[in-house]
Amino acid sequence: MAPVPAVVLLSGGLDSATTLAVARAGGFDCHALSFRYGQRHALELASAVAVATHLDAASHRIIDIDLRAFGGSALTADLPVPKDRDDAARAHGIPITYVPARNTIFLAYALGCAEVLGAADIFIGVNAVDYSGYPDCRPEFVAAFERVANLATRAAVEGRSTTIHAPLLAMGKAEIIARGLELGVDFGMTLSCYDPANDGAACGRCDACHLRLEGFRRLGRADPARYQPA
User: Fold this and answer.
1) In total, how many domains does the chain have?
2) Which residues lie closer than 8 Å to 62 by C-beta, 6 or more apart?
3) What's the whole-number mean pLDDT along residues 103-109?
4) CB–CB of 220/228 below 8 Å?
5) Is residue 230, in this structure, part of any structural domain at all?
6) Cα separation of 205 and 73, whole Å?
7) Cα separation, 8 vs 117, whole angstroms
């Protein structure tokens, strides 16, 4: 039987690495898709390359787009990345690290790639920790985009429906890390930080770092990522 192709969105962070491992464990022939979109933490793409290689992705494309043309986010404009926010602050409102329409854009590219590959499955690593703050990480968004995918493509018109998989959606960081470890993910290769140093060391203070570190703490494990000195 020929392998079943799937497109997997791969940022190089903890969640997307685990998502790639989940898709691979499900028997899919995984075609990873990453984006150089003007993000201040573009060093994550080196991690994406390492993870794609480590987890035997069938292919890995890095697409160049320019979301700095719009800005509106601390990740794509000259705005400070929030640091040292407590749980209450992170739970309130939409953070400035939200990139307008990012997941909509990424999934649209993934949909185009999937049509060309003949793939009916797309994987994205959104999860419960993120969707409390990011509107494009909510389950309602994933379901809505799947409906769009099955209206807007030649594949759908000709009878091949597309499924958007979000296998981490109901999981917190500790659960995601545990699942990744079960599947052989080397988290030392991943970069989650929004504001890393030039050498790739994570800041340890942004929201992404806090969530990641707390996940490892809950598991009683050390995070293998490199961090800047406190």
Assistant:
1) 1
2) 34, 35, 36, 45, 48, 49
3) 98
4) no
5) no
6) 18
7) 12
Return the exposure string of 144-155: e unless at least 16 CB atoms fall within 10 Å of the residue's CB, then b: ebbebbbeebeb
The CATH number that applies at residue 175 is 3.40.50.620
Domain range for 46 is: 4-219
Closest residue by Cα to residue 41 from 161, 209, 163, 166:
209
Around Cβ 130, how many Cβ atoms within 10 Å?
22
Report yes or no on 178 lying in a domain: yes
Strands 163-165 and 121-123: parallel
Which of 50-54, 131-135, 157-161, 164-168 has the lowest average pLDDT? 131-135
Cα–Cα distances (Å) from 182 to 26, 56, 177, 179, 185, in that order, read 14, 16, 9, 5, 8
Structure tokens at 214: 């707390």
Q: Does a structural domain hold residue 43?
A: yes
pTM for the whole thing? Answer: 0.96
Classify residue 62 by burial, with Cβ atoms within 10 Å: 0-12, 13-18, 19+. middle
42 Rama class: left (phi>0) / alpha (psi -120 to 50) / beta: alpha
Structure-block tokens of residue 143:
């379901």
Shortest CA distance to 32 belongs to which of 41, 42, 13?
A: 13
**Structural domain contains residue 229:** no
